[in-house]
Specification:
single chain, mainly alpha, two-stranded antiparallel ribbon, 38 helices, 2 strands
Length: 844
């Protein structure tokens, strides 16, 4: 051998020159054999260092030569010594291309180590796990379909690329272990590794099939799950480990072990691999329904209650993250596990995990950055509560009221409590004890609570107060026989809640009106004297900019006015409940009260001494008119959201917020979307009348029908549906619901009566009925045709209307020939037709 030749420099120069064949021949040349063995590990590092992330694209032959060179080292080196060196190279790999070529070499080494493979495989898998955990995971706070953009992110692509290398690496060993007499410990080593891969970082990626069912990440995880099922056969054996890991995570004292003791641990006892995060990822994969799992791998060996409670521990753990990936997996897992909870589950099965789940969902619904996640959490709260019998529901609702430091969330669960009572009334069953007597009184004390009495911040508590007043008024009106005992609580409500609320309401209104006047008149007040803050779940946001203060004050005053209207309605219901009238008291601001703190603001001493004029309590008629005005403003704004949310409570809620009222104000509309459709119909009818008043008048004589004017009126009215054409079929369906039929029939009859009157019909005989019922039939038929008309300027609909009017003229002529004899049959047919076109022909 030529001692002057440095084998490292030789092979490096050959690779740099692109002479890959010569470089690969050096280890087989006898004159370099001794030098090759002496410098084997240095050669390994040098060759691996030649590979960069873009080598496969720019110089694919170079990467192939380096990979082949490493395999040559595997063949010529002592396997035990080579393995340690390759494991070190895995941990220090500078890029994924280096990781890839080392992984191929390690696989070949492990195939050679047939006797001591178990421990060697464990070392290799530990190094692979260390490398994967070092990959950073970015969080962009994207939502909905925007999440698809994440697949183009470099770091997310890197995670998927690395994960895609792993099934090929461990596949030969899984195949060997699929036989009955395979080494149990080796099985557990690979199984623990596969479970660890379901934790970080893959848990942060989107694996929802609805978003992208054929993504690389999903395909890779699907393969790993099937391989894990092949090795373990019973995934449910990991359930006890969930309890062990949960106990260790919540325990303040954790057992510390030395590295020597770690070596003696069983594969499933290594916390780096089997922990709450990895187990949560495992049970998300097997129970969410997002992946296909063999039924034999999830046998029903444990009781349903134990299985549910255990997997809910995983769900709660996922809900403890702030990132979208774990949160989404957590709520999906919750939804899937709720299926295993039987309906009307006994309250006795309310274990601690159900309270932890409620608390986790509350925090997400209030604080999560993601709107979709927040809404999903709110729905899960309702689904979770409704899984239990009424006693269990009340227990959970009381718990949420106690722990949720958020007015909107408390208001939401109060509405759920109201729905539960209403459900009992509708089913006409015996009232459960949890809604009666002392239980009801205890609940009322919880919800009718002002934390600081008359000094409470009504802006912060607005949603809570509005829902409470709605609930109390509902129960007083609904429970006419006092089954629940609500009427026995009237004196308590008046003394402990309503009187303090009136004081707080008057003080808050006066205060905010003064602040609004200060801003509008631009008084010479230091800026700090008009500061406003916003409270969310007990946390105060940063200072509000000056240009937003006026908007916030208006919103607060709107909330106060709404509370005032509801308070007046409730007071009237209380009077009826007591069977005597008690006037609403006027509450002036005394000198003592003037010293009370002002809410949501830090004010100067000169403001604190300002005299605040009080408003006189409105009359009952004025209160009713005010409530109607509030409803009108909310409904008008709600129409702007119909194209997005349809004729639904969501549109009402969005409309309330757009009008400056709390979203929970949709409770003013008991028929939900039905009230919104009715308002739209009434408004369109009024607009049509205003237009028809400007049309030329003509008298309807004998059998003459003003066909053109009727045609124009129907087309004008139909075109008002235009902006909501895509959602109108749903509106028509809503109108057929029993509680909406009276309003629907009234607006239809009002429409046809207005059309007949303003087109010249002044008849007072039998024709009055025939024309209106006939016109109603024409309008409803034209309405259905209009929804399918895609012609320009709706010309097809106009032709359809003209044809129906021409048919009506022929019918009118026939009736005029013998009106008396055909009157009974005509009226019967007319009313049957009216019922059919409204979709109520089956209603009793």
């Amino acid at each position: 051998m030529d001692q002057s030749v440095d084998i490292l420099d030789l092979i490096s120069s050959l690779l740099d020159a692109g002479d890959y064949k010569a470089a690969l021949s050096v280890p087989n040349d006898e004159k370099y054999l001794s030098s090759f063995k002496d410098n084997c590990w240095d050669l390994m590092s040098m060759v691996i260092g030649k590979v960069e992330d873009n080598t496969m694209i720019i110089k694919p032959s170079l990467q192939g030569a380096c990979e082949e060179f490493l395999l040559t080292i595997v063949q010529k080196a002592v396997p035990e010594e080579a393995l340690l060196e390759f494991i070190e190279q895995i941990e220090i790999a500078k890029n994924d291309a280096q990781f890839s070529i080392v992984l191929t070499a390690v696989q070949e080494l492990l195939k050679k180590l047939t006797i001591k493979r178990g421990r060697s495989l464990e070392w290799c898998l530990n190094s692979i796990s260390t490398y994967i955990e070092g990959i950073p995971v970015p969080e962009y706070k994207l939502q909905g379909k925007e999440r698809l953009l994440m697949e183009n992110d470099a770091q997310f692509r890197r995670i998927i690329r690395v994960y895609s290398l792993l099934p090929t690496f461990y596949a030969p060993f899984v195949k060997e272990l699929s036989v009955e007499d395979a080494n149990v410990r080796t099985k557990q080593i690979i199984s623990a590794f596969l479970v660890s891969l379901l934790g970080k970082p893959i848990i942060f990626l989107d694996l929802d099939p609805e978003l992208n069912s054929k993504s690389e990440a999903r395909q890779c995880i699907s393969t790993m799950i099937l391989d894990l099922c092949t090795l373990v056969r019973n995934i449910m054996k990991f359930l006890p480990y969930v309890h062990i890991c949960h106990k260790e995570d919540t325990s303040s004292i954790r057992k510390k072990t030395s590295s020597d003791a770690d070596d003696e641990l069983l594969p499933y006892e290594h916390k780096e691999k089997i922990n709450m995060t990895t187990l949560s990822g495992l049970f998300y994969a097997t129970h969410s329904g997002h992946f296909e799992v063999p039924e034999s791998a999830v046998p029903c060996v444990y009781s349903p209650e134990y299985t549910v409670n255990t997997i809910l521990l995983c769900a709660v753990h996922l809900l403890g993250f702030t990132e979208y990936g774990p949160l989404h997996k957590g709520i999906i897992l919750c939804k899937a596990i709720f299926v295993y909870i039987p309906d009307n589950c006994p309250a006795a099965q309310l274990s601690s995990i159900h309270y932890d789940l409620s608390k986790a969902l509350i925090n997400i619904a209030i604080f999560s950055h993601y709107e979709y996640i927040r809404k999903y959490a709110v729905n899960l709260i309702k689904s979770h509560i409704h899984k239990f019998e009424h006693k269990g529901r009340c227990i959970l609702i009381k718990y949420i009221i106690n722990v949720a430091n958020h007015s909107g969330m408390i208001g939401y669960v109060i509405s759920l409590y109201k729905e539960n009572i209403n459900e009992v009334f509708k089913q006409n069953i015996e009232m459960p004890s949890c809604y009666m007597g002392t239980e009801l009184i205890d609940m009322i004390k919880k919800i009718c609570h002002l934390p600081h009495g008359a000094e409470s911040d009504l802006v912060e508590l607005a949603d809570h107060i509005i829902t409470t007043l709605n609930f109390l008024r509902y129960l007083l009106l609904r429970d006419t026989k006092n089954v629940t005992g609500i009427r026995d609580c009237i004196d308590m409500l008046e003394a402990d809640y309503l009187s303090k609320l009136r004081v707080a309401l008057n003080m808050s209104k006066a205060h905010y009106e003064v602040k609004l006047k200060d801003i509008e008149e631009s008084r010479t007040i230091p800026e700090a004297g008009v500061e406003i803050s916003v409270n969310v779940g007990g946390n105060y946001l940063d200072k509000i900019p000056t240009d937003k203060k006026k908007e916030i004050i208006h919103s607060a005053l709107n909330a106060f006015h709404l509370i005032e209207g509801l308070l007046a309605c409730l007071s009237e219901s209380l009077r009826i409940g007591r069977r005597f009238v008690k006037p609403l008291p006027l509450v002036p601001i005394s000198n003592a009260q003037r010293t009370l703190r002002f809410y949501c603001q830090r004010v100067n001493e000169n403001i604190r001494n300002t005299e605040a004029p009080m408003q006189v309590v409105a009359t009952e008629h004025e209160e009713h008119q005010y409530e109607e005005n509030v409803k009108s403003r909310i409904l008008t704004k709600a129409l702007e959201f119909v194209t997005k949310h349809g004729w639904s409570v969501d549109s009402l809620s969005q409309g309330a917020e757009a009008a400056g009222y709390p979203g929970i104000s949709h409770g003013l509309f008991p028929n939900g979307g039905g009230d919104l459709v009715h308002y739209f119909n009434v408004r369109c009818n009024e607009q049509l009348v205003e237009q028809m008043k400007a049309w030329p008048k003509q008298d309807l004589k004998e059998s003459k029908i003003p066909a053109q004017q009727i045609e124009d009126a129907i087309m004008t009215r139909l075109q008002m549906i235009g902006p909501y054409k895509s959602t109108w079929p749903k509106a028509m369906a809503i109108q057929t619901l029993p509680n909406n039929v009276p309003n629907c029939l009234a607006t239809l009859l009002s429409l046809v009566d207005d059309i007949c009157y303003h087109t010249g019909d002044r008849s007072v005989d039998f024709n009055w009925y025939i024309r209106r019922v006939g016109l109603a039939g024409i309008y409803k038929a034209s309405e259905l045709f209009y929804l399918t008309d895609n012609t320009q300027d709706n010309s097809a609909t106009r032709s359809f209307v003209k044809s129906r009017i021409r048919d009506a003229e022929l019918i009118q002529t026939a009736l005029n020939m013998n009106p008396v004899s055909v009157a009974p049959q005509t009226l019967t047919a007319a009313f049957v037709t009216a019922k059919n076109m409204l979709g109520v022909n089956t209603l009793k």
